[in-house]
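Summary for the funding panel

The consortium committed to producing paired sequence-structure records for every protein in the target list. Below we show the first two records in order, beginning with the earlier of the two.
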Amino acid sequence: MKNAVFSVANLIKIFWALTMLTLPITSFRWFPFLGESTLVRPLALLPLVFLFPLLLIQFWKKEIKLQIPNAFMALGMFVLFVIVSASIGALINPIPLRGQPYDGRAIRALVTLFIGIAFFVSAVWMNKNEEDLKFTVKWIFVGLIITIAWSGLQAVTFYTDIFDRETITKLQLSFSMRELVRTNRISGLAYEPAWLAGQLATMFIPFLFASILTSYHITKFKWLESVLLVLSLIVALGTFSRGGLLTIVASAGLTFLFLGRDVIKSVWNWFINGFRKRKIDIVFRFGIIAVIFALLFGVIAFLGQREIFSNLWQADAETLDEFIVEINAGSRGAYSSAGYAVFENYPITGVGLGASGFTMYQNLPDWSLTVLPEIARQLSPESRLYPNPKNLYIRLLAETGIIGFFLFLAFQFHVLGDMLSLLKQNQTWTRFAVIAGVFAWLAVTFYNFTQDSFTTPNIWLVSGIMVGLSTNLFKENS
């Protein structure tokens, strides 16, 4: 009996490790039962499918105890209202769009929501203490190392003749729905560069940043996190994702401001005291300032080579609409505007999860109909695409109304409260967890302005890890 228990426990760890390892692959080509139009296909869902039954078996046999955190209550209220709004949407019963009826879109949307919740719940149950956290983050780092290696291979293919582009493209298509990006932007193992930048901002860099700030190391190699952080930032630059880079900078800055004041104070004291010592110390500090400014100038110059960045300060526009179009954000702005118009028509309960696209076309702003080729292709009778708001918050407003929107925010702030409660433990590893959690929470908050899918694992994962740690530590101390 003990051997059987040991075997099941090992299988649980194996499947959880595989889940963490495969997180970077977001659009797995060979995912079963999905059509070509489904782009969000996290490979990590496959090992998760095997993990859940094993957890439930051990729970049923009373070999493990699965805590029910208070965050589940907040999440449950949101889910219940989503089901209510979907029922109301069925009463609205919009005209099918391009062969897609309301019930099909609603069922699909609910499935994607439950997939995302599955990642959250599994992260809660698989992270109870410091040992579990280390195990999880180790395998996240393994996935990051593979991502960096594949991203490096892409960069070498783009900018040198060492590898044949066609060969690398075939390798990419062997697991992904998309070939290498033709504009020479690094996409790693993700579907597109923006998705890779989102992964780095919401899942990988938070743990690396926290390790540097707290000197807490997951492995015995104390230099590993520093090296991985530098390489991750280089890969992030290679994505040329404006939203991703802004998310990383903003999240790091705010986290450093809120939780790194002791570090700021010690660095400042070290810097100032150097001017009271030998001349070589003064020269060294001026050298540091020069290096920082040189790096900033180099990054700006590097990014400025791309039109999507240079247009930010070179755009010749007289109105906000023209500026949005000039900086290549016109389509995203048009979809968001149309989604908000749907919310204005149904402000209380929305039109039902997944149903905003049925009325978005008639709500597109006038300026988008003549100057945006992407919108023109979408409006073509030959197009089979189904529109979406491209912004999770606007999607929530349009599809679940103001009630669903605030219930989702209530859940998110409940998660943030659970993260911050770990500070009461006053241990190095819990401080590491809090800094990583807050960084990821902020990053997800910003990232959701540029994506609208519930299936994306990285918007759920770190939150689930922190809720699991907080819940179990609270139970132990109560």
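The next record, for a separate protein in the list, is shown here:
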Amino acid sequence: MKLAHQIKIKVFSYEKHNEDEKLILDKFLQLFPFSLKDEKIGLMKSNAAGFGEKNIAIFEVSLEKEKHTSKFLENLAKNIGKDQKNLILAQLESRLDDDLDFFLRFDKREYTENDKLILTDSGNCFHIMISVAAFPKKKEIALSIIKSLLE
């Protein structure tokens, strides 16, 4: 069963925070249970100028094939702890917009230093946007798909 039309994963690496760009990229790539290169999935890197002319590297991947979205979601669900899953379930409706896009943010420091996916509201995080494949396109159906993935 198709769970998502598309999944976008993004992370920013801030030079001004003295972040190790290679470490951020390595941890970003660990989110995927397959090789992006082997699967011919593009890893986009762009740069932006932050305050004080400090560089910001932006890494982004967009998954669209069902085999990739399904494997990614299964791996993500497997790596989120029970407490965090319960928190996501408690916040389910606020994380899903009217277009049936579901949003998660995981604390960058917790993941890079402790390998833990911990929810955050801050911008210093790994961003994940899941375009839920609900048929018919109704919020209740999308919510049940997310619930079944996490339970």
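Regarding this second record: The chain has one domain: 4-150. Helices lie at 21-30, 66-79, 82-90, 92-95, 108-114, 139-150.
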